[in-house]
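Notebook entry, structure prediction.
Reason for the run: the old model in the group folder had no record of what sequence produced it. Starting over properly, with the input documented here first.
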Amino acid sequence: MYTFPPFRLLGSGWATAALLLSTSASTQAQAQRSPTPPDTARQVLPSVQVQGLRPTRYAAGSRFTVLDSAALAPFKSASVADALSARTPLYLRTYGPGQLATLSIRGTSGRHTAVLWNGFSINFPTLGEADMALLPVTSVKQISVQHGPAAALYGTGAMGGAVVLGSATPRLGQQVSATLEAGSFGYGAVSFDGIHRDEHVAVQTSLLVRSSENNFPYTALDFGGPVRRRQASAALQQSSFTQQLSLQLSPKAELTGAAWFTRSDREIQPSVGSVDAHARQQDESGRVVLGYRRRGTHSETTVRAARFADNIRYYNDNVQPSNSATVVWQAQAEHTLQWRPNASLRLGAEAQHFVADVDGYRRHITEQRYAGFALLRYDPTARLRLTLNARQAVLPGRRAPVAPTLGAEYQLWRRQQQQLWLKANAARSYRAPTLNERYWGGVERQELLPETGVGYEGGLHYEALLGTQLPVALQADLTAYSLLVDNWVEWIEAPTLAPRNVRRVRSRGLEASTQAQLHLGRYWLSATAAYAYTQARKVSGYAADLDPIGNQLRYVPLHSASVGTQHAWRNWQLTLNGVFTGYRYTTASADDYLPGYALLHASAGRTMHLGRYTLTGLVQGYNLTNKSYQNYAGRAMPGRSALLSLRLGWH
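New structure, fully documented this time:
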């Protein structure tokens, strides 16, 4: 068995810092909250509260999808991919349960989605994308998805959108919770959350260990007709440890630290009908972030440093083991000035140093990247919010284009308990070539250009508190968008396999969602519904690109939707979720496709209070209609399955 002690990923200095972070057991409380509007800062912040201004404050006119602790509660031991697939219409291209899963937003690819943790991108520098199946929900307390170009806020890769993995502010005191889960197809998981917070120190700890045989039955077509088989070579083992620390040095100064270690050992699920080569992949990541924040009367200064290390080892029966080891040193500095209650400016800079030892590069690689940015928020009146942002990156051998963003939100009308906002946003974005694209095969490709994108969106946001005897809180959003990506990189044979800037892609679509909440005595109901129409087509290319023009891109569903309800009465809880994914072409010529499918999931549970202890039992069912489907061509997906969860909490 291939092993790699996680602290070796960080080096002795960072290991010492990580050990300091883990000196105290802790947990993260699950604070339920109401759905958030596009901009959570509905009231103008006074000058003494500059701290805590999140990037969303500088994203007027943008669309967000937020899964808070209440929405994530049923996915205690699951991955971010599982939660997004079950609760949103966002399309994740997955190769099987627990296998590689990448997120596609507005018709783009996984390389066009930036995934951030503690302000830094965790996309693999080799692939330029994040594997959502390797990110456990237990390590994050909130998932925020920004739809559309967001390079000014998040940097390279945020062309289709960005995923921000966040944490909630812990409550004072101590809390501990432990979860034991068992389910179908050899699934088992153990997790732990702990928290300690007083006036000066807050420490949070999360731990997860899970495994699954994934030996589910599926139906395959053979020469004699449909046959029933059982999936083989798809087992997985995963573990994750997260530690976060906040130390209040003075009323104005704070020191923060975070460490996140993950390890995964996965058998690579073979395609249906193919010869099993016993492929296997082992992924290990070690991430450490240290930060310092100082607050003034009208300003705030933050500096952060991080070291992210990723090791990937792949092998099968037919090839020699392949190794990939990368380290990214990163530093950020930001200064926020709020010179008026309705105006704030954030200036910042960042630097990255990449170190890569990848078999496919045939040599040791180092590379530096830099960027500077400015974010402006100005509210001329209580009915109008404006943001103007810009980022300039400096890449090896070339300079990326300036990435500006202009956003606005205007209150069209307001009644005593209703309001309607008009929002609009225009942005330019970019994606720097990945290390694989620049150095694979031992050839440095100086001619490869950064991808660029221009996006526009506009829509309406509605909020209301309806009824008096039976009050219902309602939110609804409608957004139309257009996105053009130029210099799209594809790997093609010309004459040998290599990446080329060969195509221009236009994506247009419509996104709609609504959320409602009802409180009636001890009964609570939350209902959500969302729909996405996504038309993504290649509009031009070059001679080396043989793909036809005008067809819907591969694995981009034209229609997708999700609905869900959460019920709570006394100590009982019930959750129902349904998702629909339309047909997807599997070839560039659009001559073959996977049919659409609809899935139904549910969970039911009860909580018992025993003094300072709580005991929760939860039964979850997935794909209750036992639908036979494929998310990716040739990769079987499980039918009906169940999960039993037992959670013990103390506070």
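Summary: Residues 43 and 58 are 15 Å apart (CA to CA).
The old model has been moved to the deprecated folder.
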